[in-house]
């Protein structure tokens, strides 16, 4: 036997010993053998000899190499590293058997594959090309942090690997307790990995959670963790509702049609209602994507649901929904798209827990559908779209909901070079909008306390009062929506430029012109009635009827089937003077601001339509806006001044603070906010007086873990609080909590007859590493204001349910676990449904939600409804 060796560390690529060995063997081979045989005598070539003619170089690095001519072996010892075809084999000792072409690696073996996955073992038996072999006590770690262990692994070829008594998990090993079982794992008698199929097959498998066996599977197949999408069964869907659907289970199957297409088919079964089908198709295009989701059911027991208007018709057996989304990029700047959601009835989403993009949590409010084309350019955009709405709230009456088509928005800002514009400079902004809205039936709301129809106590109506016998008049009622057609086109052209003088004062002159053209074609026909019969004191049957009629719109509109409009030019100046002061603890900036805007009075608006500017909240965010209305249907008139000051303090290591206080004044002309439209927008806003209310903002954030902000509005005459919003967040160690408080004064002229007040608390406590509990509660502090409200229907008087000061609107609690591979949660929710009927009946909605999310395997969401009521937010508005 002849041995040759060298001690000491060698080059990571080719050691000196290997070089001398190759030279000696080459010279000897020239005398006694063909050159090709001599070439196979190098260690690199001996390992590569079994590679079936593959000439890919193999680089070997080791502390010591022993060559045994008698046993035809080459042994590398001491921190051995072999590099071949982007694979790396590391071990304490590697033996190459020349006759069989096998490689035996022993001691702290580590094989890194070309895809980044790593296999650890005590011993590996491999073919010379690493394509086949046996591994004892193996642990394989992939680049996406998934892990496989087995008592013995056999790599049959590059296609198939068999793990005997194997286990798979996506959870990392606990650093402090490496012998502890992972959070979850799939253990099986045998796991077979098919590389070409990119699937794992489990035989006699058990799913374990926190070391405890949970579910046993005789056979199971899952995609390879590295596969982003593969055909197969997904996690089941579970639900429960004791009174309507019973227990429900759905088993989705995901099928990959092609690299750019797939479909998910989900058959559901409900104990009380039978089978429901759901098919969702998705396709990716070269320039976009689209999806189509169809769901439907033929109910076995439709009478289990409440009848209209509390639920779908008891005779409606066929129910369903269609949803579709899509975006197609026409080029880099333009795209066409749609987002469609429409159900057979407004209760389907809630009854079968079908969500869409417009639904937040469990608050089912509307199905919104839109089709659009949008262009985005340099400081400009174009948007053309249409909307259709399906109301889901109890009080929604579908004929009153508008369809909006088309709605066009265009905005463009153009910078002017003073050198090319005769010194004018600044920037020009073009803003344009066109909206067409149609609805079948007008929408009304009582001024003061809400009034609902006499039959169901659900739909908004107006009623005569002791002081006003005309129910549908401007002094008694609001026109919220037009029954008919309303078209409005608005364009505004504005210019502004900023100047900074030597003192640091910032002057911004601006000018604008706004033009509006509108067309109103209100329906004079069409109505709906709600009737209720009762027996009077004499024993006679009487009937009370509430009628919602389009004809009553004439009381709010000065013209019909005519064009209208206005042109409003304006000019203004804004002044700011930021004053910087450096203090020992930070940098402080105080900035007084003043603004004056002059416009003509414009036309009277007491009978104008207002559909898109009904949301008006005067606060710090719009104090210095040229126009404080939220939409295009209303615009400020006259001469108005806005003034105030803001303060910021950068406290460096102590965080930051800011504050603002300001006021607006009608200097001359007609105050548009004191001139009501058909919905009384502007009244009770704080802007409807010559001197507006004061608005303030105070914020402080000492660090990233703590923040506080308060926005308030104070009456200008006595500083009484008219509105306050407070938000606070804090995180101290494992405890995090938040506070939200709001208090709004009564605004009967726009339909809020009582003060609205609410308090919400949220909290989370991380008990241990990865474990947490959380909870939230919302109090409706204004509900008790309705204790004395009466409803007189016919000869009966009904009283609103009494409520304590701290009336709970909703509360919830949950416990959960979350780490890098598992999300587990159990949450309980209790809330109040919106009241309807006479007297209003406020039922509590109770539900439980179980969630389980396993990284790489899927997730399960199981909502269980403990009450049959429609879930709402629990805050009273009437």
TrEMBL record:
Gene3D superfamilies: Lipopolysaccharide (LPS) transport protein A like domain. GO terms for cellular component: cell outer membrane; transporter complex. InterPro entries: LipoPS_assembly_LptD, LptD, LptD_C, OstA-like_N. Its main location: membrane. It is found in: Cell outer membrane. Keywords: Cell outer membrane, Membrane, Signal. Transmembrane segments: none annotated. It comes from the Bacteria. Residues 59-149 form the Organic solvent tolerance-like N-terminal domain. It holds the Pfam family LptD_N. Residues 318-755 form the LptD C-terminal domain. GO terms for biological process: Gram-negative-bacterium-type cell outer membrane assembly; lipopolysaccharide transport. Belongs to the LptD family. Involved in the assembly of lipopolysaccharide (LPS) at the surface of the outer membrane. Component of the lipopolysaccharide transport and assembly complex. This is LPS-assembly protein LptD. It comes from Rhodoblastus sphagnicola. The gene is lptD.
């Amino acid at each position: 036997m002849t041995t040759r060796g060298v001690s000491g560390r060698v080059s990571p690529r080719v050691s000196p010993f290997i070089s001398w060995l190759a030279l000696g063997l080459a010279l000897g081979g020239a005398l006694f053998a063909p050159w090709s045989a001599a070439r196979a005598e190098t260690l690199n070539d001996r390992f590569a000899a079994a590679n079936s003619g593959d000439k890919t170089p193999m680089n070997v690095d080791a502390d010591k190499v022993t060559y045994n001519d008698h046993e035809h072996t080459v042994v590398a010892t001491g921190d051995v590293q072999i590099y071949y075809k982007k694979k790396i084999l590391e071990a304490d000792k590697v033996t190459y058997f020349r006759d069989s072409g096998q490689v035996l690696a022993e001691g702290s073996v580590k094989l890194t594959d070309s895809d980044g996955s790593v296999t650890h073992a005590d011993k590996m038996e491999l073919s010379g090309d690493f394509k086949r072999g046996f591994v004892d006590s193996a642990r394989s770690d992939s680049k996406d942090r998934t892990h496989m262990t087995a008592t013995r692994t056999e790599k049959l070829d590059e296609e198939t690997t068999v793990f005997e008594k194997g286990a798979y998990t996506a959870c990392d090993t606990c650093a402090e307790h490496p012998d502890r079982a992972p959070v979850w794992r799939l253990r099986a008698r045998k796991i077979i990995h098919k590389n070409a199929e990119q699937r794992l097959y489990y035989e006699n498998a058990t799913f374990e959670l926190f070391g405890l066996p949970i579910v046993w599977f005789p056979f199971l197949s899952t995609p390879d963790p590295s596969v982003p999408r593969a055909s197969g069964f997904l996690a089941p869907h579970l639900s429960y509702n004791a009174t309507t659907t019973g227990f429900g289970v759905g088993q989705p199957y995901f099928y990959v049609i092609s690299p750019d297409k797939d479909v998910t088919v989900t058959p559901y079964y409900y104990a009380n209602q039978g089978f429901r089908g759901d098919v969702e198709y998705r396709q990716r295009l070269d320039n976009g994507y689209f999806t189509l989701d169809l769901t439907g059911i033929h109910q076995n027991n439709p009478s289990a649901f409440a009848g209209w208007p509390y639920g779908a018709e008891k005779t409606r057996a066929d129910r369903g929904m269609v949803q579709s989304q899509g975006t197609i990029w026409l080029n880099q700047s333009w795209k066409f798209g749609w987002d469609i959601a429409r159900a057979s009835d407004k209760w389907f989403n809630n009854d079968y827990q079908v969500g869409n993009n417009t639904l937040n949590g469990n608050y089912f409010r509307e199905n919104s559908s839109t089709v659009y084309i949008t262009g985005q350019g340099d400081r400009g955009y174009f948007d053309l779209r249409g909307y259709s709405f399906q109301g889901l709230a109890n009080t929604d009456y579908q004929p009153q909901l508008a369809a909006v088509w088309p709605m066009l928005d265009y905005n463009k800002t153009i910078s002017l070079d003073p050198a090319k514009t005769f010194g004018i400079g600044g920037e020009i902004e073009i803003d344009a909008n066109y909206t067409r809205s149609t609805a079948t039936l007008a929408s009304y709301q009582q001024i003061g306390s809400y009034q609902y129809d006499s039959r169901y106590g659900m739909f908004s109506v107006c009623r005569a009062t002791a002081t006003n016998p005309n129910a549908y008049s401007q002094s008694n009622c609001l026109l919220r929506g037009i029954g008919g057609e309303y078209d409005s086109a608005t364009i505004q052209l504005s210019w502004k430029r900023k100047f900074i003088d030597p003192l640091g004062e910032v002057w911004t002159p601006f000018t604008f012109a706004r033009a509006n053209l509108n067309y109103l074609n209100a329906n004079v026909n069409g109505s709906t009635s709600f009737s209720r019969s009762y027996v009077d004191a004499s024993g006679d049957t009487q009937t009370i009827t509430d009628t919602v009629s389009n004809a009553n719109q004439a009381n709010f509109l000065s013209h019909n089937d005519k064009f209208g409009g206005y042109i409003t030019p304006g000019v203004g100046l804004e002044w700011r003077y930021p004053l910087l002061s450096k203090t020992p603890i930070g940098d402080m900036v105080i900035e007084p601001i003043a603004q004056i805007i002059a416009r003509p009075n414009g036309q009277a608006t007491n009978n104008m339509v207002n559909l898109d500017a009904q949301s008006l909240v005067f606060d710090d965010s719009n104090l210095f806006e040229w126009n404080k209305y939220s939409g295009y249907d209303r615009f400020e008139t006259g001469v108005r001044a806005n003034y105030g000051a803001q303060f910021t303090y950068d406290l460096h290591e102590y965080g930051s603070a800011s504050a603002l206080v300001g006021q607006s004044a009608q200097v001359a002309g007609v105050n548009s906010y004191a001139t009501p439209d058909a919905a009384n927008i502007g009244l009770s806003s704080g802007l409807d007086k010559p001197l507006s209310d004061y608005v303030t903002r105070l914020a402080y954030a000492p660090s990233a873990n703590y923040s506080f902000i308060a926005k308030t509005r104070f009456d200008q005459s006595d500083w009484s609080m008219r509105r306050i919003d407070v938000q606070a967040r804090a995180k101290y160690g494992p405890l995090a909590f938040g506070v939200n408080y709001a208090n709004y004064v009564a605004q009967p002229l726009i339909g809020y007859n009582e003060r609205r007040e609410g308090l919400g608390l949220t909290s989370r406590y991380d008990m241990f590493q990865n474990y947490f509990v959380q909870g939230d509660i919302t109090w409706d502090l204004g509900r008790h204001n309705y204790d004395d409200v009466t409803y007189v229907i016919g000869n009966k008087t009904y009283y609103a349910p009494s409520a304590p000061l701290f009336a709970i609107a909703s509360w919830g609690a949950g416990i959960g676990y979350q780490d890098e591979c598992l999300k587990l949660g159990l949450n309980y929710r209790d809330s109040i449904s919106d009241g309807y009927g006479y007297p209003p009946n406020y039922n509590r909605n109770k539900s439980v939600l179980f969630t389980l999310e396993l990284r790489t395997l899927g997730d399960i969401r199981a909502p269980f409804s403990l009450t049959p009521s429609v879930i709402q937010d629990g805050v009273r508005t009437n």
